[in-house]
Design brief:
Hypothetical upf0131 protein ytfp; 4 helices; 133 residues
Length: 133
């Protein structure tokens, strides 16, 4: 199955530790969404926004990887699954159920996300924009 990562799961080492079968395919952009951070965990989330994009990593994951991600993402309590098509292929990602106000991420979490942006060669301007709110 294809999985779109946009937060801490962009970090290749962390993703491999969490999902041993995962394979990073390439970086892609999710159109008409924007990145934000929210909830008591101050974690990454995406929300619809016209003419905006969220850069992320496309991974191939196994069924057992998906189950591990479900636990990590506190599915279905904190996050729900969101599906979109990428060149005709179904891709799964997670989006928060409760759209609480913006909360600046912790230094530790943000550093993992930044390392993930480097691992996936993503443009940090989108991450910086999400932090300016």
């Amino acid at each position: 199955m294809l999985y779109f990562a946009y937060g801490s799961n962009l970090h290749h080492f962390q993703m491999k530790r969490r999902c041993k079968d995962s394979i990073f395919i390439k970086k892609i952009n999710l159109k008409d969404f924007r990145l934000t951070f929210r909830s008591k965990y101050r974690a990454a989330d995406i929300e619809p926004k016209k003419n905006s994009i969220v850069p992320g990593g496309l991974f191939e994951i196994s069924k057992s990887d998906e189950k591990k991600l479900d636990i990590y993402e506190d599915f279905p309590i904190l996050y729900k699954k969101y599906y979109f098509l990428y060149y005709g292929k179904k891709v799964m990602t997670y989006t928060m159920n409760k759209k609480t106000p913006f909360r600046f991420p912790t230094e530790r979490y943000l550093n993992v996300v930044k390392r993930g942006y480097n691992d996936c060669k993503l443009d940090k301007k989108y991450l910086n924009r999400a932090l300016l709110l």
